[in-house]
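Intended use. Records like the one below are meant for learning the mapping from a protein sequence to its folded structure. Do not use them to infer anything beyond what is encoded.
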Amino acid sequence: MISKLYSIPRIITRYSAIAALTLMPIISWAEVQMLDRVVVVVDDGVIMQSELDERLEQIHYNIKSQGRPTPPEDQLRKDVLDTMIVENLQLQMGQRGGVRISDQQLNEAMSRVAGQNGLSLEQFQKALEADGLSYQATREQIRREMILQQVQAGNINNKIQITDKEIENFLNSKEGSALTAVQYHLAHIFYGLDGGSEAAGMAKLKQAQAAISKGGSIDGWLKVNGANNVRGGDLGWRRTEDIPSVFSDVTPTLSVGQVSDPFATDSGIHIVQLIEKRGGSTKMIEQTKARHILLKTSAIRTDEQAQQQLSEIRQRIISGEDFAVLAKQYSEDIGSGSEGGDLGWSRKGQFVPAFEKTMEAAQPGDISQPFKSQFGWHILQVEDREMKDISNERQKNAARNYLHQGKFQEELDAWLLKIRDEAYVDIKY
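Structure written out for the chain above:
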């Protein structure tokens, strides 16, 4: 079933209200039957019977595919309708606020959903169609879900405040320690001595180690080479205290992707691979301190003129003039020009590719040749470069996000009740 292939948090299936008329040959207009009707009026919008039927059909499909008991139909209909009313109100807010989801944003979201389930976008579309679901309808459902998320974020985020003291208290708690503790994603292969000799096990797992280290996977190797005395697989994410005792010594010594040498225990021969790692006390990154001068092109300054002027400024700096003084005089970067072109400390990924490429190639003290980015022409000077431990910063960010999520849900529940109570809702059927 498609529900096993992908997961969409909530599906919004609200289409434009269309009165469908069916005319049979040689019948009078009096016999025309209305196939849709307004079920609920919600402020300036409506919910149609067809929309409610589609949502109920989706809910029944999900319940059946998950093997859960179906609640009484009357209660299910009431709950679904209540949910649709609140969603309708939010979609109206989004429309009034100009919230739009571009096709590019939607395509990226669809690709993420497909990728999370190990499918390409084309495979995802075929999987939907194989289950009798419309790919185009699914796109529109996800578009509406994305609109809801933006409306909720816009109305809730500014109500949430996380203090430094809250973060400190959380990190000192048992829950906070568990959140930020180092975790390992492991896989392993075990060769049982009840089915073979230790020497044979060592030789077999040496072969496995070599094959997997060249870019294979433990699961892939096991599909070909697994037997009664050779088994294993993905162990998932484990905290240090949850790692099986046979792996506890070797796991911390592995780098991500590395496969251990075979090692023996009383029960057999093992190898273990560290697939991923997160958390921990140390995270080093390279950061660069730089300054720049920007000249923009315009109707009165061509590319050639901007490049030439920056070449002259660069030569003045090499001859002994102060970079910061010249940046204040010439730079057209509003943010940094008044600060002598100072960009402070930055990490990889903070600047546009052309700027970052030039900055990475420069050594401390170097003044670059003029180069062009989407903003104009630049010269830059790298003042310093160092490695920085950002583990404390990462832990605080993780704690802040965790606390924010908890407060967000509380504020969201209260806000949804408020907009529902203040809305005009007329249930017709």
